[in-house]
Each structure stands twice: as C-alpha cells, then as structure tokens.
Amino acid sequence: MRGWRANADKPRGGRLRRRLVIGLVLVVVLVVLAPTLVGLTPLKDALLARVLPAGAGRVAARSAELGWTSPVVLKGVEVFDPQDQLLASADAVAIDLSVWDLLVSKRPLGAIRLEGPRLMAVVRPDGSNLEDLLALVGPQADPPPVAQSPADGLAPPPSATAARKPTIEIIGGGLQVLDAETGAVWQWDAVGATIDLNSQPPKIALQARPLPDGALSVTTGPSETGGAEVSLSAQNMQLASLAPWLRRFDRTIRLDGVLSGSGQLMVNDLSGRLADAAVRDGFATRGSLRIDRLQASAAGLGPAPVRVLSVELPWNARAAGGRLVVQQLWLRTPAATIESSGSLSPSQLRDLTTATQADVRASVDLAALAEQAPSLLPMRAGTRLEAGQLRLSLAAKPISGGRTLTGTLQTEDLHAHAGDREITWDHPVQAHFALTQSAQGVAIDGVRCDADFLTIDARGAATQSMEGDARFDLDRLAEHLAQFFDLGQTRLAGAGSATFAGTLTPGGARFSKIDANVDGFDLAVPGVRVAEPKLLLQGDLGWDFSTGLIESQESQLVTSAVAYRARRLRFDPTGQQPAEGELAIRADLARMAAWRSTAGGLEPQGQVVGRLMLRQQGDRLAADVDLTGQSVSLIDRSRAGAVVWSEPEVRLRGAVGYTPQSGRIDVSDMRVESRSLAGTLSGSLADTQIELRGSVDYDLANLSPLIAARLGPGIELVGRKQARFELAGAGADLSGRFQAPWDSASLYGLPVGPGAIQGVIAGGALRCDPLNVAVGEGKFTTQPTLRLQPAPMELSLPAGDLFSGVRITPEVSEKLLKYIAPALQGATQTDGAFSMRTDGLTLPLDDPKKLSVTGQLAIHGVTVMPGPMVGDWVSTARQVEALAKNQDPLAALNKPAPTLLSVRDRVIEFRVAEGRVYHRGMQFEVGDVLVNTEGSVGLDETLALTLTIPIQDRWVEGKPLLVGLRGQNLQLPVTGTFDKPRVDRRAFESLTRDTVRGAAGQAIENEVGKALEKLFRSK
C-alpha cells in the first residue's frame, strides 16, 4: 500500500519541478527582455517624464532601443516647455553605454551622438524660452557617492573614471530663432560639431550654415607649442539675427547688414585675468572683420537710421617683454577712420587712461557722416554739406620718471551749398593740450583752444600753481551751426567768461578761485527752456579723487530763478571726516515754472527762501531743512490764469539723512504747514525702494478750486479732515494704502453726505474702494482708479451705473445735464429724475479737457420751466406749427411764453471726446410740438446742434394745399454759445420751396416768405 502511494506521488513531484523550471525560464526571459519591453511600452514615457523637474516641461520619444549589452538609442526625441510648446527635437540620440553599464557597471560615458537635432528658440526682450526652462531646471545637486566594496569587482578604478570624458558628435542639426517682438525668424542649417573633452583645451570643431547663404566655422584645440588655439571664420552672417538679443539692452535697437571675417587667437596660458594672460609669451591674435550695408537704428541715434556702406576692423597684437604690443587696431568706414597702436602693461590694460605708450588718430569726413547718419548731423532743409573734416590725435610717450600726454582737435574747411548760396566756416575749432605727468604731479605745458566763439588758455605747474581763463560767445556758435544744421527746437544764446586758479595733482584738485558769468543765457531743448538775463558762479572748490571728499569755504550761484550761497561746506562720502555746511536758498517758483517750454495746466507762483544745515550723524550726512514759501499760489493757465489755490505762507521743516555707503535717503518728521493744509512725512528711499508714511490735515473748502481744476467744476467738498497714507516697494511694485474723508459735498449741485475715498496703491495705480453714497434722493456708485505710472496721471471709472434715480434740480441741470440734454439749460423749475450709465471713463489730469466717456442718460418723466435759450427754441417751434397749419406765424409771437417743457421717459446716448459732448435721442414736448435735438456741446459751452421739428399729420389735415408737408421734418442748425445761440433761418425757406406747389401754393409761399421776414425782423 505504501509503495503504491510512493509511486503515486512521483508524477505530482515531476509536475512541480516542471512548473518551477518553466517559471524560472520565464523570469530569465523577462529579465533578458526587460530593456526591450521598457522601450516598447509606456514605461519608457514614465522614465522620460522624470528627466525634467515637475512643472519644467516634458521629454518624449517615439521609440527606444534598449538592451543589456547594446548601446542606448532614443528615436524621435522631443522636449517641450512648460506651456507644452516644442523647444527641441532630435531624430536620434545615442550613447555608447548599455543598460548594464548604466545600472550596474557605472562605466563612464564615452560618446554621445545627436542626429538631426533642432532647437526652436523664442527670444523676448526679457529672456527666451530656453532660459525659462534652464531657470526651472536650476542647478541640480550631484547625487551622493554610492559606497561599494572593493571585493564586488563592479566599480572601475578611480583613475580610470577621472581620465575618461565624453565626446559629443552633432550631425545635421538646425537652429531656429523667433523674434517674439517683430515676428522675424532666423534659421541655421547644416549644424555639425565634434567636441572632444579629453584634450586640454578641449577640441571643438563647429560648422553651420546661417540662412540664406552664410557660413560659420569655429575650431579650438591645443597649439603646436602646447597652448591653446582658436580660429573663427564667418561669411555672410546676417546682423539682423543679433537684434533680438541686443534688444535686452535697448528695446529700440534695429540692426541690419552682412558680417564676414576671420580671426585667430593663440595663447599658452589662459589662467587668471585676461589682462595678465595677454602679456604672457605665446599670446598673439590677428584678424579682420567687415560689415557691408550696415543699417542701425535706436532711440539714441535719432529718428533716421544710420547707414554705412562698409565697416572694416583689422587687428594685430602680440605679447612681448611682459607687455601687450598692439601693432594695428583700426576702424575704417567711408565716413571715419580710427587708427591706434601702443604698448600696454597688465595694469594699463585694466585702466587705459594710465597708458604710457599709445597713439590714437581719428579723422571724420563730416560730409559723408551727414549723408550716412542724418540723425547725428541733421542738415537744414535744402542744405548739403560738401566738405568738412574733424581730426583728433592723442599720444602718450614715456619719459624718465613719467610720461607726456599730448592731444589735438581741429575741424577744417566746412563747406556747404544752400540752393545757389555757398556757405563756409574755415577752421572753426583748433584745440591743443600738452601735459607732463611725473611723481611730482602734473605740469600743464599748455592748454589752448582758438575759435571765434571760444578761447581757452591754461598754463602753469599744476602741482604748484596754475591759472586759466576762457571766453565764449554762444550766440556766435548758434549762428554758425544754424547755417549748416537743423537745430530744431534747440536754442543757444549768451556770452560770458570764466577764470580759475589752483592746483592739480594725481590725488585731487584744489581751485582757490572759480569765477564765471554769463549774460543773456538762453538754452532751449525739447520740453525745457532756461532763459536767464544774468548767471553768476563764484567760489572755491577742493576735490579728493580717492575719497571723493568735496570742500568749499564759500560758493554761490545766482540767477533770476534760483540762487544759493554755501559756506564751510564739507562732504566726505567715506564718512572719515564729519560733514558740515550751511546753504541759503532762494527760488522764484514762477520763473522756474517758465523753464517748462510747454505752457498750460497748473503753474506755481511765489517765492521760496530758507536754509539747509548740513551735519554728520553717525555714518550718514544729515540736513536740517527749513524752507518758507511766501505768497504761494497755483494758477490754471487753461482758465485764463485763474487762481485755484493760494497761501500767504507755506513752511516746510524737517530732517533728511543720506548714507553714502548704501545710497539710502531717510526723511524724518518732515512737516508742511499752511492755512489750508498741514502734513507730516517720514520714511526712506534706498535705490529704487520706497517706504513712506504720512498724513495731511486739510480744509476742503479752501482746496475746492484746486480740486475743480483737476476734476471739473461740478465737484465741491467741505470739511476739515485728515488723510493718511503709506507707501512701500519700487516702481510698478509700489504698494500702499490711503484714506481721505470729507464731511459733506456737492456733486454737480446735488448734496452728498459724509464719506471717504480710500483704497490701495498697487501696480503703478491708486485703486479706490467702491463708492456708494446717497445723492439727491438717489445714489451715486463707482470705483475710481488713478493711474500714477506711466505719466501723465489718468483717472478712470469702470463701466456701469453712475447715477441711479437722482432728482433733477436747476443746479444739476446747469452744471451737468445741459451738456447731454441742452433743453435743460437754464431751467428754473424742475420735476423728475435721471439715471446715468457709462461704458467707462478716462480723464487725463494734466489736461481735463481730454475727458473721454461714452454712456446713456435716462430721463424719467421730467417737466421743467425752460430757460431763455430753450424758450426761443419753443417760440421757433410754434412758428413752424403756425406755418404748417396755414396760420399767421407772427401771431405765435404774441402767445405767452411756455410754462412747462416735458420729457417723457427717454434714453439719450452720449459720448465725450476732444472737449465736446455729443448726444442723440433727446426729445421734448411743448404743447402739441415735438422737438428732437442732436449734436454736440463743447465744454467751453459752444453749440453745434440740430433741432428737428416733425410736421404732425393733424396739423395739415383738411388742408389740400399743405398736403406736401405731411411727414416732413424741419431741421434747424443751432450754433453760438449757451449765452448767445444762433438759429439758422434758411431751413424755413428750404422747406417752403420744397413742399408748396402750384399757383395757390406760390401765393402761400409768398405770404409765408413775408411772414418769415417779419418774424426774423421781430426776433
């Protein structure tokens, strides 16, 4: 029995062993095929998703060839940015490591091969998509080393790991650069490269073909002498492709042209500073670049682009005897040539002004420059510069114990034609200087300038005693320049002289006497004009070049607009010597305001006098401020010089501190006091960071004219209140809060209860909290925003209901509604209400007449007693009614004046633009007569309206001779002003001629014509 069981168990054990064998085989197969399965399944995508950090984008591949012993190959590789836009792609990426090498042996990377890689760069003025990705990826920390036992035999020897570096091969690559600002696209094809990091320096060979027909080649590697050698060759490179990158520095840059050239650099040792490497034996560089058809424009170059046919830049330099010998460094264009040579030590390379052996010569063909860069030399209309040269030379030569410095500047033979007239200016400027610098200081061998508008003569031993004088005639200079060049809005006038005496050393300057005066000074540039009949500057000055210490025992500047006198002034930026000094200041606000060449708006009047006392406070310079404004006022030039705010005296007191090391300015308890307002201000300014807080106590009754000058005459505020504010941040990031209450107000004649404007400052704007106040049995709702930056400041209101259910009064009709509904002008008795909705409002505070708004005015069952102007309209309408009814129109003149004018529920569309209020859809009734109005009313109360009076059917019923008037509208233009309106009478005559026919009609027309003559004579 037991044997039988034993025999029965044998098949079961065999089956188990077979299962184990099969399972083991399956495991082995899965292990062997695992890399292949990963490459063919979504596991590949899961692994690639971990290449970039979360939120930095993603990497995808169409397929992957993975094996335990075969190289890793990814095909159809794509890299996407965080916005899922394609950034880079490659047909294939291969490395010479297998999965076994990556996971187990840790064999160093040997070769990387990129087939068909393409990079799609989008460049903005503030960066690019590639930089955005790199910023998100950030520097990745190296993983900690994995400790392995020497006995496991898997880790390669450290020396082998350190010795092996990868090589990179790029085949058939491409680059596309999109200029996000202009939409221009630049492409490079046939990009190929080999990079071998195993040599020192690395061997690099790069070739590319910038489209359309360019070529670029760069090679680096060891030189025959054991140093490094770099070669560059470029042909037909489009400079426009550089513009997207250059606009990071200036957004107005536009560049075009073709660059070609080649150059070589050989150096034995690049360690340390470049200035040191450039003087070591073995350093040499030579080459030449050329730009054809250069065209450049930028804000600093003026409105017209600079066009140069060609630019050449050849150079040749080498190291010899511990110095860099520049044999040739030239810049040549058809308009200018600059040639330089010299020998420089490492220290002189870092500061070229200390060079002891250098020669620079430049010449400019002014006629060619005026043609190629008209913005730099803008000629007068009809004037052509035929000839002219500007020559400059600078030379430094070594002498025993120092060096000599010489220089010359001269212009020659300026010659032009203005039509048939010849203009010449022979030798307008000739200047020369010669200095000797040694351990004892600087000796002025001579400084002289000779021109008919300027003479300068300086002489003496600078370290002991030197003196000089100058005379200038700005009128003559302006006269000469105006013959040739278009000075535009620039004006220059005045004549004067200056003298000085003192010493000059390498460490500083000390002038014991400075005396300059100008008569009839007048300088005007766009936006500013300074005109002073007399300008005087006198005093002494000491300046330490190393510490920046400035000292003056006494100095003064006197003009008609501003003047100051300083005594015992000392300021040391390093804080080593205590600051001190006293400054007395006087300013004429009206004359300073006149410096603005654009008149208009609010202008200050009055005098400011006071003192600033300087003192040292720890590591900062402190100034006690005490200024008094006398008879200060603001006048509104746009309102014929009306005074909108005035104070007999305004006093400003407080303390200001300046820390030179940090550039921080502190304001301590600055107070302003006057009759209508008083305030305090404290805080600091450091670089662009602002931190201010303060309060203002004000009397709104005295400030109402000023508020009306900015926001319009319809707003009046009352109350003695205190406003508070606080600011912090920089530029567009400036933020803060404010609150300004009032006791009562009048809004276009409507009473308003107490309230407050409050809100936040952010993003360069002041944003108020929503306002919802009771006004004239209705309500006023809005949420103002005041834009602070960029200038000019602008007030805006959002779209929505502004007034709701507000009762109409004679005041609101006169101050607001008459501009939208002229029929309400001058109304003396009113009944009804109105609502107003806008589609948004903008009001530039520097020019309130540029108010812009569109909206709808809803009038709810209004009846009014019309004013004189509308009464005349009603009388005219009754004449039309009489004519239409074949009655005597003169009889209508004897009817009593209308008692009521009614407006049924109407919605009037309006818009404000260019200082005028346009409307349509206004209709009012007087008895049987309907009158429609449309057109515009100026903010200056001028009229450009059209009255439309429809001929009603019941007027002509039963009158066969007047049937032609049925359905007609009489349109009467109205011009003039509210005070003096003018109605155009020609519409009556036109209507009569067009509608009356036949003999009977002719008789009626004659009678009507006579009646009209009497009618308008009587009016």
TrEMBL record:
Record field: transmembrane: 20-40
Superkingdom: Bacteria
Record keywords: Membrane, Transmembrane, Transmembrane helix
Biological process terms in GO annotation: regulation of protein targeting to membrane
A GO CC term assigned to this protein in UniProt: plasma membrane
Region ranges (Disordered): 139-161
InterPro entries, alphabetized: AsmA-related
Name of the featured protein: Assembly protein
Organism: Pirellulimonas nuda
